[in-house]
Design goal:
With 292 residues, this protein is of the alpha/beta class. The chain has eleven helices and nine strands.
C-alpha cells in the first residue's frame, strides 16, 4: 500500500497533496506541482501534462517524507533545498532567508544603474544571506566585483556554494561581519546593496515567518530600524561620490528610512520606491559627484 494512503499516479497525487496542504498554504495547488516536479526531476509542465504517470515506490516515499515536513510547518523552499530568484536557482538551508520576489526589484534597479555607469564596477552586498543579490548581479554584469558580508558563518557557507554553482565565485569575496564594522576607511564602493532585517519585533512575532526562517535576518528591533540606522551611518563612509545605495525596507518604514538616509547623506538624492503592490519597498540613495 502506498505510504500515508497517497495515490501512485501523478493526477490523483496532485489533488491529494493540494487537499493536505490547503489549510497551510494559499498556494497549495502550485506547491503540490513544484514539490512533485522536484522529486520526479522534471519541469512543472510535465506533471500537469502527464496525470497518468506512475511514481516508483522510492519516489512516493520521498513525496510522503516531504509532505510530513510541510505539515509540520517547514517552508517549502527548505524542504526542496532550493528556490528560484531572478531566474536563477539558489541552494537554501534554514540558515538563510528564503529569497522573495520583492527583492528582485532591488536587483533590477542595481542592474539598470550598473549598465548606465560602465566604469562603476565595485559593489558591496550587506547581509548577503544565500548570496542571491550578489550572485544575480555578478551573473548579469560579467566585469562586476563584489564584497558580500554576513554575520552568519552558516549563511556564508550557503552563499559560497551558490556562487560556485553559478560560476561567479572568483568575482565575489565573502566576509563574516557585523554590518560594516571590519571595513577599513579605504574600502569604498560604487554600489551598496542591502536587504537588512527590517520587521519590527512585535510585528514579526505575529507573522507566520516567525521561527520558520532565521530571526537574525528578519528582526529589525522595536521600530524596525535597529539595523538600518547604523547601516546608513556607516555606509556614508564607504560609498564613493556619485555612487548608489539600494536598501529594501518594510512597507511602513518609508518616511523614517528616508529621513535617516537624508541625515547620513545630506547632499544625496533620496527616494522611496514602491513595489508592484504600491507599498514602500526600496530606499534609493544617489550620492552627488565631487564638485569640480
Amino acid at each position: 500500500m502506498p505510504p500515508d494512503g497517497l495515490p501512485c499516479q501523478v493526477g490523483p497525487l496532485l489533488q491529494a497533496l493540494k487537499t493536505r496542504l490547503a489549510p497551510l498554504s494559499e498556494t497549495a495547488w502550485l506547491d503540490a506541482q513544484v514539490l512533485l516536479a522536484h522529486i520526479l526531476g522534471v519541469e512543472r509542465a510535465f506533471v500537469l501534462a502527464h496525470p497518468q504517470h506512475t511514481l516508483s515506490a522510492d519516489q512516493l516515499e520521498s513525496v510522503n517524507a516531504s509532505l510530513q515536513r510541510l505539515l509540520a510547518g517547514e517552508p517549502l523552499p527548505y524542504v526542496l533545498g532550493q528556490w528560484e530568484f531572478y531566474g536563477l536557482t539558489f541552494q537554501l538551508s534554514p540558515a538563510v532567508l528564503i529569497p522573495r520576489p520583492e527583492t528582485e526589484m532591488l536587483v533590477e534597479h542595481a542592474l539598470a544603474w550598473l549598465r548606465q555607469h560602465s566604469g562603476r564596477r565595485r559593489s558591496l552586498d550587506v547581509g548577503t544571506g544565500s548570496g542571491c543579490i550578489a550572485i544575480a548581479l555578478a551573473k548579469h554584469v560579467p566585469d562586476l566585483h563584489l564584497l558580500a558580508l554576513d554575520l552568519s558563518a552558516a549563511a556564508l557557507k550557503v552563499a559560497r556554494a551558490n556562487a560556485s554553482r553559478h560560476q561567479v565565485a572568483q568575482r565575489i569575496q565573502w566576509l563574516q561581519a557585523d554590518l560594516l564594522t571590519p571595513l577599513s576607511t579605504h574600502a569604498v564602493f560604487d554600489l551598496i546593496c542591502a536587504n537588512p532585517p527590517y520587521i519590527p519585533t512585535a510585528v514579526l512575532h505575529g507573522l507566520d515567518v516567525h521561527e520558520r526562517e532565521p530571526t537574525l535576518a528578519l528582526d529589525g528591533g522595536d521600530d524596525g530600524l535597529a539595523v538600518i540606522r547604523p547601516l546608513l551611518r556607516g555606509a556614508r563612509h564607504h560609498l564613493r561620490p556619485g555612487g548608489l545605495l539600494l536598501m529594501e525596507i518594510e512597507a511602513s518604514l518609508g518616511q523614517a528610512a528616508a529621513s535617516l538616509a537624508g541625515e547620513a547623506f545630506p547632499e544625496a538624492e533620496v527616494q522611496i520606491l514602491p513595489d508592484l503592490a504600491g507599498h514602500d519597498r526600496l530606499l534609493k540613495v544617489q550620492t552627488a559627484h565631487h564638485k569640480a
